[in-house]
Design a protein that fits this description.
By secondary structure, the chain is mainly beta. About 0% of the residues lie in helices and about 50% in strands.
Length: about 375
């Protein structure tokens, strides 16, 4: 400042330290420090000039909320003036004082006050340069509530999973920490994974609690769900066009299983020489067998040798050792089964002369397992 000789006397500062002032700083004046040292380069003999800004209003003091009860608490002060003296009162009685060290970026600093009990009234004021500020608006100490969230939110019976429970202050939303207890005791901490076993017979839901000083007990319940039933086993039929000509495709195919008081139908339009149809079938009662009759219908398209004509024929009966049958038997015990069935042709003979008199298109069972 221009009156530096009045503002401060010279001081020996080994590295960093304070220089006492002889008068208060004035708003909008510039201050700087000069160094007298023979080994210091000239451009380092004087610091940058700093503009003195207004100190703010001593009446702007605020107390951060919430205040929770506890044996060892600090009160966070907002909008204090750095260098001011802050005094905290509990139920209108002085409790603690501290120099304001609030930074311009954070704006808050703590004052340790010791024990706070529920429903106590807390206020504060600051003093600066002999001036006492007004009491800040009071804040009452209250027990908090927490919102807990489990991830995953449910578990399946018989599984062991890694679970994380997170907690937030229900009123102000900030993240909380603390120990988590399960049905048998301590299991982990908020925000950290721990292992949960839902062994068969574990009661549902699994109850987790969090006890944190100054808060009501937090509770989250994780239901146990039954495992999904196993997928239905299926009967898989592979159909093959086998009429012995160069060009042949199955254009339509349909299979129907009838039995056990129901009819199950599946169809496709493959337009290929081979196609696979999968038919899921309900699992029968343990140890029992359900007898189904399998019927089918296939359309096969081919080029007739010699003429080059495109023909389409239907196969609707099974060619067996017992003659042509409308269906074949499939025994079902709940285990996956497969069958390979050809779409082919068979000759028709005159029963008297034995001469071939016609051709029929048929379904021929190759294998079933």
């Amino acid at each position: 400042a221009s009156d530096w000789s009045v503002l401060a006397f010279w001081a020996l500062v080994p590295d960093t330290g304070w220089i006492a002032l002889n008068r208060p700083l004035r708003v909008n004046e510039e201050i700087w420090v000069t160094v007298e040292a023979g080994c210091v380069p000239a451009h380092l003999l004087m610091s940058d000039r700093i503009l003195v800004e207004g100190a703010g209003d001593v009446d702007d003091l605020r107390i951060d909320e919430p205040l929770r009860p506890g044996a060892s608490r600090s009160v966070w002060i907002r909008d204090s003036i750095p260098g001011g003296r802050v005094h905290v009162y509990v139920n209108q009685k002085w409790r603690a004082s501290a120099w304001s060290i609030a930074s311009p970026t954070e704006g808050v600093f703590p004052v340790f006050v010791g024990e706070l009990t529920e429903e106590s009234e807390v206020s504060a004021r600051q003093t600066l340069c002999g001036r006492n500020g007004e009491l800040a608006p009071p804040v009452w100490v209250s027990r908090g509530r927490m919102d807990l969230e489990a991830e995953p939110s449910s578990v399946i019976s018989g599984q062991t999973v890694a679970m994380t429970i997170r907690g937030r202050d229900a009123d102000h939303g900030f993240v909380m920490s603390g120990p988590v207890n399960g049905p048998t005791g301590f299991v982990g901490y908020l925000g950290q994974q721990f292992i949960v076993s839902a062994a068969a017979g574990t009661p549902s839901p699994i109850r987790f609690t969090v006890d944190t000083e100054g808060y009501e007990q937090g509770v989250v319940e994780v239901p146990i769900s039954a495992p999904a039933p196993p997928p239905q086993a299926a009967f898989t039929i592979t159909s093959i066009s086998a009429i012995g000509v160069a060009h042949q495709v199955i254009t339509d195919i349909e299979w129907t299983l009838t039995g056990g008081g129901q009819s199950i139908r599946r169809d496709q339009k493959p337009n290929t020489t081979t196609c696979v149809v999968t038919i899921p079938i309900p699992t029968p009662a343990s140890g029992s067998t359900v007898v189904y009759n399998l019927s089918g219908k296939a359309a096969i398209e081919f080029i007739q040798p010699g003429t080059g004509a495109k023909l389409t024929q239907q196969a609707t009966a099974f060619y067996t050792a017992y003659g042509l049958l409308g269906s074949i038997v499939v025994e079902w015990r709940g285990n996956a089964r497969t069958a390979e069935i050809n779409v082919a042709w068979a000759p028709i003979y005159d029963p008297e002369t034995g001469a071939q008199i016609d051709t029929v298109y048929v379904l021929v069972l190759n294998t079933m397992s």
